[in-house]
Amino acid sequence: MNPFSTPTRLRDMIRAIRACKTAAEERAVVRKECAAIRSAISENDQLFRHRNLAKLMFIHMLGYPTHFGQLECLKLIAAVDFPEKRIGYLGLMLLLDERQEVLMLVTNSLKQDLNHSNQYIVGLALCALGNICSAEMARDLAPEVERLLLSRDQNIKKKAALCSIMIIRKVSDLAENLMSPAASLLKEKHHGVLIAGVELCTDLCKVSASVLEYLRKTCIERLIRILKDISNSSYSLEYDIAGIVDPFLHIRVLKLMRILGQGDADSSEYMIDILAQVASKTESKKNAGNAVLYECVETIMGIEATSGLRVLAINILGRFLSNHDNNIRYVALNMLMKAVTIESQAVQRHRTTILERVKDSDASIQKRALDLVFLLVNETNVKPLTKELIDYLEVSDQDFKGDLTAKICSIIDKFSQEKLWYTEQMFKVLCLAGNYVKDDVWHALIVAISNAPYLQGYCVRSLYKVFQTYSDQESLVQVAVWCIGEYAEMLVNNVKVLEMEEPMTVTESDAVDVVEASLKNCSSDITTQSLSLIALLKLSSRFPPTSERIREIIMYHKGSVVLELQQRAIEFNSIIQRHQNIKSSLLERMPVLDEMTYNLKKASSSQANVSADKTSKSNSRASLKLPNGVIHATATTDLDLLDLSSDDNPANTSSSKDYLHDLLGIGLTNTESTDQGIAPSEGTDILMDLLSIGAPTVQNDILISDAVSSNQGIAPATKPSSTIQVMDLLDGKQTNTSISDYQNPVHPSIIAFQSNTLMITFTFTKQADDPKVTQIQATFTNLSSDAYTDFVFQAAVPKAFPIITLEQSRMN
């Protein structure tokens, strides 16, 4: 006889499949068996129908298609005997789901079986309905399930309650029909029925506000009685787990109490005593007890509990933090993060334990504890907490050091009240984890130093000391180099020494040595090298005897493969050699950086980053269609940190989002000038090029009318042009610019000033024979009927620009 014929038993087919050594052999066996089952189905074989369906379920579990046998499930369900029905319902739940249209055919069979006299057949129908219930089936069969909730059989009640949960999830409108039978289930003594009833009440509360109010009035006393009974009951072998009587029922009752008591003071008042009893009597030596305690704490924090009860709950969480189980410590930290907004003082008492969890060996617990510490920090405890975190920073793992550094910097920046304490703590962080400090953090530190003149000497001396030991920390080196470049004379001359400082002697050569060492040690970081070159250039002005040595150091980078460094080296060398007359004014100390403006820019930049992240995906495809693959960055309109732009002119826009780099001239791209009186060109602007602000322009000289005085009335006047040539910064070489570019005005005329009596108009032109000179022709128009006398016109420009002023060309 063929071993794969229809009468083959299920165990024989399983044995044959397991004996297959390859997937091909298994597929061959399954294919033959499926063919035999199809033949039996076509012949309407009723004798072995249940056996064929059992084989199909096993084949389905192996992942093979079995859709051809779905109708066999319906035929078995319609059978009279229990064994056939059992296999049919099992196949229905396994081979079909609620999306199958064939389920419409089974609704009538389910209705008949729900009304069957055999409780086991009723149980089969309830199980099937609870697993594959659709919205249409729920509406059709809800009355039968509602009736079964009041059955005398405990098994039927339990299964009907679970089936009701599926029904209200599919059709929430039926919740009000089920609320009264659900409430009656809480009177049962059988724990299985109680658990199903509590779960049903919980789901009913979530889908209907009216049901929630009804259960608040009728169920709270019953729930309290259930908790008292299981808390005070003696040992029961049937329900005992690790010394706790039915922790599953405990937890579900506590969850339902939390939902009923949330936002309702009267309901919460009834629960306070029983919650205190559960919290104080439950043992925490086993996981079952810890689970009940955690749910009790969550319920206490969720309802309108008294302050004393909340303190008791937080103390339980404090004990959890000392538990050896990682999961218990983690859930305790999670709950404390929620509780800190409600009972901050109670959580503060466990601050020492929470700090210990920051040093935990588990990475997840470390991060969660660090987040909790950040929430605990306030003005009164910021100093001890920061000290603890910085002490741990020195010995923390490399993987955790980045997160820890970011949190410490946020705490210092947010809660610092004294500039001295702020700088001291930031220096400690830079020494221990300078490689993990983000750019905006040390940028903010530089802004703070520039706004604290009384601390500038202390800061530069402190940074000089720590540089000798921690020269491998990039952020520390960058801040130290910047401070030495700006305040080197305070370092050498011991200016503004604080009482706590120890005396030290630093020579001019020592200051240069530090910057030179930063160039050698950080050869791979362009930002640090650029800062170092700028610092060297400033030291050449502050310490003239070291100029030649500094020039040699700078010239070493003339052949750098990095274009930015190469350009800086050539320009700085030219300044040292050929432009002594403007070097001192050009290399003056940087103006004080306005902290408020910087913070506004940083905030706007972070908002722009968030919006850019949201639109990056949608813009990525469009950006590929731009010519030559050029993507134009969105310009910002923030005020310039150096306040070089006046209120009357639009501020320079920049695509860079790093504002301190903008100030220091590191990694900037050329942008179009938006000043109305300056035309973009291919020349070099001395001041703007050295400060790297905006785009290089050709404005190396300016001709402007300065003063007009006369005792007679003044009518509109014009002034003749005159030119003077200034040597270019880079060896006096002139740029090759076509003459046609300068034959016409490079910028439209502007009205510089206008009132009811006077209007001043500027016209800009360039001479073809000398494109480095800009001629500004001023026209003064008297708009009044009276004559002007003793008229004086004055204009101010940066000191770096040589100007020539001419007398008025004519008077009318």
UniProtKB/TrEMBL annotation:
Keyword Membrane assigned: yes
Subcellular location: Cytoplasmic vesicle membrane; Golgi apparatus
Region span, Disordered: 604-623
Family matches, as Gene3D superfamilies: 2.60.40.1230, Leucine-rich Repeat Variant
GO biological process, one term: intracellular protein transport
Residues covered by the GAE domain: 745-812
InterPro entries: Adaptor_Complx_Large_Subunit, AP1_complex_gsu, ARM-like, ARM-type_fold, Clathrin/coatomer_adapt-like_N, Clathrin_a/b/g-adaptin_app_Ig, Clathrin_app_Ig-like_sf, GAE_dom
Alphabetic keyword roster: Cytoplasmic vesicle, Golgi apparatus, Membrane, Protein transport, Transport
Polar residues composition bias: residue spans: 604-622
GO CC field: AP-1 adaptor complex
Protein name: AP-1 complex subunit gamma
Organism: Ensete ventricosum
